[in-house]
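Lecture 7 notes: from sequence to structure.
We start with the chain below.
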Amino acid sequence: MYSSVDRLTERFAVDEVHTEPLGERYNIAPTTPVYAIRQAEGTRRLGTLRWGFVAPWADRSRRRPEPINARLETAADSRLFGPSVASRRCLLPADGFYEWHRPEGSAPKQPYLLAPDDGAPIAFAGIWSSWRDRGDPDATPLYSTAILTTEAQGEITAIHHRMPVILPPALWEPWLTAEPDEIDHVLTEVRSLPAPGLTATPISTRVNNARNDDPGLLEPLVE
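Predicted structure tokens for the same chain:
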């Protein structure tokens, strides 16, 4: 996510910005803040959410894993994600994403950069949740998010069997604003989306370490 706030504001027709710039980032890890676009009462806002979904009823003292992804095929019917699919959806902008492929044999996984063909920021279909420490009524709520995933299509099928749900501009508004009784129709449209235009580029295994966070991670692998 290296696009500026100004670029995201223009690309996604944002009405209000509710975040300080996060800066250019090339290796975003779970539990860190990510840009997120939400809409309420006709106002589209750019803010941040913590990547790693925390259910409203979660007991965080038990240290259970906090999902970063939710499967499109089952999320709407799950106790964990269903309420957010119904009424707490967001767009998670990105300039690209990484995926790993293990060649035949014992070779290590090869990372790939998947980036849009036109170079414009893309929008992952996201869901969000609000959690508050029940033992501290004055605690600040924790707002968190997960990315919906689906069966791989197009360029990514040779690399991995899953991929993020990438929403085209025509579905941004329905995804953000659909009422609970309308979401089934929107989900049907999402499930029928064609393969997104992505280019896969093999890159260095430096990306495997989240401490490496620089533009060099995007450089094509040199044999």
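Points to note: Residues 5-95+120-195 form a domain with the hypothetical protein yedk fold fold (CATH 3.90.1680.10). The chain has one domain: 5-95+120-195.
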